[in-house]
């Protein structure tokens, strides 16, 4: 306020001041227009709100807002919120923030990026470059904000006895303060106007800068109240805002200058900047290429925007981006230290922003070092056992402290050690004030903790908006010392020579580059280490940049990613280093961009600091010279592959605790204890994995791990062993080390174990020949998942659980296995067996017990690795093979029983899928997946053995059989699941009693068909099929059995051994089956003959007439006909709807149907011989582009895509080249879609990514013509409908007539309607090599109907071009046709010629007679004088012809045979001589 004022003015102000004593507790009244109070001695107590107070000592000013008359003016800015609910934040754009290239909601940077970093496919927020905008202006983000109802109360009273000021000066012994009441502003004005009663006068010159300062502070205060206070300090009193305005600095930034610069640190980075007016761009460094900085504009700031965040002051965070003035920008800068000074006086200003501070603190907490890491880095615990340090630190408590809050109170005897982990604190001594300010990395209270001092000798207060500190109680230390008595001696020595509080050289001790360095060098280096915090998306270094003093970086918390040319190449976890080569001077240019993926803490070591330490310790130079010439490279270290994506702190701690071991090639120690009892990560070299017999199983290279099952909790001894192939370096983690690490992360234990098991499962899949983590194994080995979509299969694979089973344990739990008990007949007849389910009652209520609803464990198992035995009560034991599946039927819910028990012989790995989880996810799908599930759930029920017996007894084939015969067949719950369209038995297969199988359908339907596709029957639930062959009645299968396409089929399978045993016991029942089969066989033969006749007379002729299949050999037609289906529809029935799934081609055999677009417009009629869906039959498209509705009774043939595939896969199709031809057709259609032809060849500004253009390209038929080839147009009367052609390249002539009269020449980009040409009998003859396309008109309108064309759409240009072409072709065709008709012979040509000759003769005769008469007459007339011949004068007349009637070429002929004019162009000129030879008068001429 008084900066720059003259000494004379200051002396006058002090001379006119009045000294006043404020007693302890006495209130100092603050009012508008009052005096400005200056504390002379003592201290005043400031109470803002109801929570906290501060003590201000000598030199502080009070009532600045009242002095400048701002209190009343502040009323218009008062925030009113009577409900107390949080104020609804305004959109970012309305606050002056414009983000480029991102339209989503602003992120909550302190909440959205907590926890493990999201995978790219799961992240939908702004990208890393856009995050630079939000990191620069965090107030543009969503955040937890509180609202204040009005102003906070402000009371200023005299300090109580014993209350000491926090800054400078000492309190009075009895409390209170002496203040100077400076003259009010009005009194100063009176003195200036010479109206003061005191006689003291002032002049403008003596004021100096006082007036300017008052105006600047007032202007700053106004802008703060309007644009800053509500966002940053809601509810703050006007006195606090005056204090902020008095330390703010107004600045004008010229256009093109920087408001802030990316990467600036220190005080500049802590400053808050308020843009008052103007526009500025936010720029982000992308890379430096050829010494040229490439920046990207990520946003724009306008008046009201705030750069920086109050919660980040003191966080040591560099500026995330550059802000450059786009116009002249007026801004107010709030230096960070000045803001902290205001907060020290008014600490409760942050109360309304508490939620924001807490969010920031919680985000930071996740990335801090673990408690053990923090404690072990202190000199206090240097040299102590890690277990001891872990016991001490694990009982520590992390505390969140806010501005002004006390960490340690002077005189306190509590004896708690505080380690400052984030932000800064001030050291204050009573009577002296603040003596120092220290950053994070220091500790306080160690003297009282050890008992060296009885009480604390200073007060430690939080100097930043908040701080994080780790508190270690004295009781925790004593408890740990009792557990580790050997450490007592260490602390006794410390009492005589206590260590300093600063973190020791352990900051860099664990860095790979410095591990072999001495303690002195590390301490010297540690003194120069600086720390910084980076937010998500912020860059640490930029690719291609050069630095004068490059630094290396140590990632102490969070995760960063290395990028090259904008693409991520590596992810770096805590403990890793990067930039060593730049610091050592080996590589002056940054090779990669390092970007923060989460909030990160980075320690940096400047090259200058490193070389200064080397000068102090020259013995280290030789080692670093070797390191410089070694193979250190920028990038991440080798990490455990089984823990990728896990907590960054966990990985760092694991590397910290893990033991490193180096061995030579052939060293056998790795194959014995303790190495074979630990998990091993290969850092360098190659190691062979051997089985107990010495056979090599695999070769491990750098980055691979072995025996990671130890980390997953497996206890069994490892039978494999390792043998180094080359010199190797490994990292070893035993169970004890792993336990210590996971003790820090008790809540993550389950998640980490699941990640390890998932990795083990993926490696087992790889050994089985499948891509790790893919759904290939699942879809190829299981019937259930082979029918679902690829997307859902991938989703299901991600839900799989991998289990480790110890030797001797059941893989399939014993409670899920059927136990069979012998209990049938009396004691004298023990040769008959009855199989009873375990747990079932033996009385008459057995069936009811099976029907009760039970909580069943329904899981599907895939065996991945190990040695296991499968035990079946009937078939005995066998080895369970890797990749084998068990439990599909219980998983699908069609039975409650598993067919066998599986026991692990070694440590086994099993992949498990749980029914409830899979079915719940499948129910959320759309389309086919959901339909399959619904049908299965509706039909399936968990059958037991007794229910299966009843089903068999009620079936058609066994309803007359003996009950005991059916019971003898159902001995084992061998229930199998089949996917849709799966062939179960094939016609012609050889059948033998005791080897062949038959099936009882439990769920779904099975189609039993003959050789030519004859459907004999649909076998439903409760019926059997294949029994004739299984019982040996027929030597071969008489029909094929295939599951239906609507859903799954579950069947009870009867093995050959079971069937033979039942036949031996009940031979008469086999004869009954033979009689039933004879009657059925007669009906089947009759049906087969009818089917063959239908194929011959209907199916093959219909297929042969289609353009798609025309020209194929009869054998191929027969293969397709076998798979054809015929469907019948009534009139006005919907055959298919636009958008419905369509995987077949439709051929209309009889009737008619209407084609409609998506919006219901009619586009064509289908009649007998028409077809629809060629691309669907080819597998190019799976949905219908139009709606088809029958207009009369209609009969269709349906050719599915599956039938086409099956027919093309036949040996005959491959041998005759049909398969190659169709593949060429499919490839050609894909090429058409990629090029966007034919429409992109018309020159009507179509885009090849337009869905309509792509649809037409998919439907168009390509015709390649060589010079001389003819294109015969298709008439509109064809069943397929009208067509038009498009000439994409080349040149053709439209010709007509047998003599090939030329009508018109067509060039590239021409359209020609084929129906028009066909109606005149015209053909198109290629003059050059041509690429042309034939498009069906209803296909065109069907594709166009996919969306509504806009006013500027290409569709209208197409219509204009098509109309012009039709008109032009019509004129030319009519002209040429007229010319040809003239030359056509007439039936009376001879008579006409005779009449013409006779008429000519008579005219000649008349002329001769006329001449004779004229001569005779002249002889008789008198001779007259010669006179001038009469001149007939004609007036020049102009005949005008409209261009639309005649094109100027009406009288010209370009070449023989080309008629270049139209009939309308002929002009009848007037005759100037009448019939008698006399001239017409001028007036009679036409005008």
Task: Give a structural overview.
The structure is a single chain. With 1487 residues, the chain is of the alpha+beta class. It contains 46 helices and 72 strands. The strands form 19 sheets. It has a 5-stranded antiparallel β-sheet, covered by helices on one side. Strands 1-8-2-5 form a 4-stranded antiparallel β-sheet. Strands 9-16-11-14 form a 4-stranded antiparallel β-sheet. Helix 33 (963-969) runs antiparallel to helix 35 (1056-1065). It is globular, with a radius of gyration of 48 Å. The N and C termini lie far apart (100 Å). 41% of the residues are buried.
Features:
1487 residues; globular; 72 strands; 30% helix; disordered C terminus; single chain; alpha+beta; 46 helices
Oligomer: single chain
Structural class estimated from helices and strands: alpha+beta
Return the average pLDDT rounded to an integer.
Answer: 81
Q: How many helices?
A: 46
Helical fraction equals 25-40%
Report the principal-axis shape: globular
Main β-sheet, spatial strand arrangement: 6-13-12-15-10
Could you give the count of β-strands?
A: 72
Q: Spans with pLDDT under 50 lasting ≥5 residues?
A: 80-93, 501-505, 626-636, 819-854, 1423-1487
Task: Please compute the radius of gyration using only Cα atoms.
Answer: 48 Å
How many angstroms does the end-to-end distance come to?
Answer: 100 Å
